[in-house]
Amino acid sequence: MLKFIQQNLNLFLYFFLSVFSILPFFSPGFFTVHDDTQVARVFEMGKSLNDGMFPVRWVQDLGYGYGYPIFNFYAPLPYYVGGFLTLIGFDSLVATKIIFALALILSGVSMFVLVKEFFGKSPALVSSVVYLYFPYHAVNTYVRGDLAELFAYAFLPLVFLSLFKIHYNSKISRFYLILGALSIAAVVISHNLSAFMLFIFIFLFIVLSLFTKKERKRLVFSYLFILLTAFLLSAFYSLPALFEMKYTNVLSQVGGGSHYADHFICPSQLWNSAWGFGGSAPTCVDGMSFKLGKLNILLSIFAFGLFLINFKKNKDKLFIISFSLVSLLLSIFLTLEYSSIIWRLPFMDFLQFPWRFLNFTGLFISIVVGYLIWQGRQYLSNKISIALASIIILLTLTYNAALFNPKTIDDRDNSFYTNETYLKWTVSGISDEYLPKDFRRPESKNHLRESSFDIISGRGETRLINKKTQEVKATASLETNGLVRANIAFFPAWEIRVDGKKAFYAAREDGLYLNVPSGFHVLTAELKETLVERIGNALSLIGVLALLIVIIRKSDTFYGQKTS
Questions:
Q1: Beta pairing partners, 477
Q2: In what order do the strands lie in the sheet with 506-508?
Q3: 117: exposed, middle or buried (C-beta count within 10 Å: 0-12, 13-18, 19+)?
Q4: Element housing 505 (H / E)
Q5: Are 46 and 82 contacting, i.e. CB atoms less than 8 angstroms apart?
Q6: How many structural domains compose the chain?
């Protein structure tokens, strides 16, 4: 045990130093953030899982109680983790705190693994601390509360670890093929907008890699395998997200107050901008900070200078450093108004906020700082290089650890965030873009529907038999022919049956309407998977099968190439 600790001392030091980033999650209650829906979404994910739905696409209580297919379009992975935690006994508030903390800690671990592979343990420790305590990481956690971006941020280093290793290896590496596919898929199902940005840098990486290496056949096969398998693994989510968006009002989030032109960063804000808990504004004075950290900027400049001085001496590290420096500059450039011509390209407006690219700025700054520490060891004695690394860590903690705190912590328990009114009214009002475009929102919480089925015309009554996320069953006793409304938001996956027979219904702005004859009937509304969803599921199963084949294949050749 002692030997294990000695061998992994730097990683254990990271875990100790990371505690300052998650201390607020140990306090009772929770804090208000921009996206103040996280506990509710974890609760709804757990509820859907408990009802036997997998993959989870629909939630029952959000959308003013009409439900909507949020997890067809928004970041299911962190909520799967939180949902499973609720299934094993944690309440939704505690589960939410755990996944926030987990995302924070894992980000530094993945950076540690990346930098250790190329520069060693001490540089890895410094890079992991810089990556964890990058200022925008604190914005995402304690200001925006963007759990999806936090999770994506944790997987980014693993993506580039895989790509760099494939670039440098002379053989096809099964391990990095698998890691690359899994980590890219994890980014996709953690935050699709981060995946969009990631593919920009992956495209740049592949172009530069093929340009600088001779064994292109191996590289092309490896990169295609990773990208194709990542697509297959995430298809259960990405296909519906693309092709079923038209049934919701998701596109309303593009443009308007979220138009990219109003959210560029001013260059001076990168050096320093006031810390705050407000929002992004069209001017250079925002309610939130976009600073990179003065120390990070100075270290990056110093690393760039060392790279130029030692350009010919660092041939084995040439590609990783040159790519990281180019990508660092590109990520910063894309946050500035100078890049507006690029933002006019198709689909770029989906990203909404140019400052989202700061996630990648943090990634590449951390790699560059790792290189700086490694390069410094070539000139300095071991004691001095350790002292230098310690000083950088200490300064990072001194200036940035204090940012990892919320404005206030409200003393609220789990019941506050999961009671019916809060779910159906408060949270639904924050995020209702997953409802149909023409859906009529209730005027007040007093207008929320109390029953699953209402008789609109005709005499009679309905009685609920069973209600699950994916199925609602009730009886209807009608004295005359009548019109019944199922209080469910329209989505093509819903099928309604009367006495077991499929019934036609009309989708209107406040539910699903069907004609029911007089007499006693059993009404069933069941969520069936659409053709697109079934195709996505099948493709994801094929992706899992592809990974299993790579794992169990015994031959030392793969596609005619030696493997390692």
A1: 461, 520
A2: 453-457, 482-486, 511-516, 506-508
A3: middle
A4: none
A5: yes
A6: 2
Q: Phi, psi (5° rounding) for residue 411?
A: -80, 75
H or E element, residue 55: none
Does 25 fall in a domain?
Answer: yes
Q: Which two tokens stand for residue 199?
A: 């593919």
d(CA 344, CA 293): 29
- Domain shared by 214 and 85, yes or no: yes
3-class DSSP assignment, residue 69: coil
Which domain range does residue 358 map to?
A: 2-403
Lookup: tokens for 526: 């069941």
Residue 167 identity: H
- Amino acid at site 188: V
The segments of the chain whose pLDDT lies below 50 read none
| Residue located via tokens 């439900």 | 67
The pLDDT of residue 251 is: 84
> The pTM is what?
0.94
**Does some domain include residue 559?**
no
Task: Name, in order, each residue with C-beta under 8 angstroms of 406's C-beta and a sequence gap of 6 or more.
Answer: 24, 31, 32, 33, 142, 277
Q: What is the DSSP letter of 564?
A: -
For tokens 């108004």, what's the residue?
337
Q: What is the pLDDT of residues 312-332, one digit of tens each?
A: 777 788 899 999 999 999 999
Sign of the CA dihedral 392, 396, 397, 399?
positive
Q: How many residues does the chain have?
A: 564
Whether the CA torsion 125, 117, 373, 272 is positive or negative: it is negative
